[in-house]
Amino acid sequence: VKAVNTIARMSTLVRMLKKEGKTIGFVPTMGYLHDGHLSLVKAAEKHTDVVVMSVFVNPAQFGPNEDFDKYPRDPKRDEVMAAQAGVDIIFCPRSSEMYSEGYSTCVTVEGLSQVMCGRSRPEHFRGVTTVVAKLFGIVKPDIAYFGQKDAQQAAIIKKMASDLNMDTEIKMMPIVRETDGLAMSSRNLYLSDAQRRDATVLYRALKRAESLIFAGERKASVIKEDMKKMIVQKPAAKIDYVAIVNPCDLKDLEIIAKDALVALAVNFGKTRLIDNIIVEV
Ligand code: PAF
Q1: Which residues are CB-neighbours of 151 under 8 A, at least 6 positions away?
Q2: Taking the model in full, what pTM does it have?
Q3: Res. 50 pLDDT band, cuts 50 70 90
Q4: N or C: which end of the chain has fewer CB within 10 A?
């Protein structure tokens, strides 16, 4: 794996690859890699000639009281894991170069960024779309890979790429879960043993929603109530939202007549976990 720290070097490599006619698959991450990230690398390897992974803990997507400072970082471990997974170039830009003095440009996807996670994290998606737009400008990927765990993020990035005529195809890949169903996330590390055990209720609530839909329940309000009842049985769990929405435009569904994204965000102590499932109707 080639480690690159500057935008100039990355741009030079991209120019060379394009000249050689190589296609670029891109996996943007904030590091502290787990099997979820590695599954994106595997997909990129299958579809493109060269796999670029970025590792950048993006300050712009953290709110003032969020976990930017304590977000887990281990660049050496990331480099080893990326190399083993088949990443060709690992791009770790410096914050001072990504947001140099006087930086003043933002990318906002209106609407989709204000619902669900956007309600309790009002600046978050603007930070995500801004950094992803910058990374796309540098890496110029043919295909970029995002995990379904952040299904809202993937929908927003798809909309950004389409609205801004970006020449990058966005692929969303399935969630990778621990054996007990908890969706893999770098933030799972924050959970105490008891919180970690209780957090398994999230996937069980999502599966319960799926079985209710498969059994013929079509009223979203009934399903959401049932899920909430299950989750609040864990005293440490504080629900931020449970939503049933159209997977593309994230609009609330009252009656489930087509595919539905069932999504939730729940706090366990200071740790906010998100998860979702797409139910095909
Ligand atoms: O999903 C993430 O890890 C981040 O939001 C991303 C896409 C790398 C942007 O910082």
Answers
A1: 172, 247, 261, 263, 276, 278
A2: 0.98
A3: very high
A4: C
Give the atom of ligand 1 at the shortest distance from the alpha carbon of 30. 3
Measured by CA distance, the residue closest to atom 9 of ligand 1 is 128
Pairwise CA distance, residues 256 & 245, whole Å = 9
- State residue 193's pLDDT score: 97
CA 194 to chain centre: 25
pLDDT score, position 159: 98
**pLDDT of amino acid 57:** 98
Are 48 and 21 in contact, with CB atoms under 8 Å apart?
Answer: no
Within 29-74, residue ranges assigned H as helices are: 35-47
Residues in the ligand 1 pocket, defined by CB under 6 Å: 28-30, 58, 61, 128, 131-132, 150, 153
User: Burial, 257: exposed, middle or buried (Cβ in 10 Å; 0-12, 13-18, 19+)?
Assistant: exposed
Whole-angstrom distance, CA of residue 149 vs CA of residue 158? 15
H helices of 140-271, in order, are 151-163, 193-198, 201-214, 220-232
Is 37 an annotated catalytic residue?
yes
Greatest distance between any 2 Cα atoms in the chain: 58
Do the bridges between strand 143-147 and strand 169-173 make them parallel or antiparallel, or are there none, so unpaired?
parallel
* Cβ atoms 252, 160 nearer than 8 A: no
Q: Among residues 34, 37, 47, 124, which one is catalytic? A: 37
Tell me the two tokens of residue 87: 């990443």
* Nearest Cα residue to atom 2 of ligand 1: 29
Q: What is the mean pLDDT of residues 40-48?
A: 98
- Over the stretch 169-210, which tens digit does the pLDDT of each residue have? 999 999 999 999 999 999 999 999 999 999 999 999 999 999
> Which distant-in-sequence residues (6+ apart) come within 8 Å of 241 by Cβ?
116, 119, 120, 263, 264, 265
CA distance 131 to 139: 12
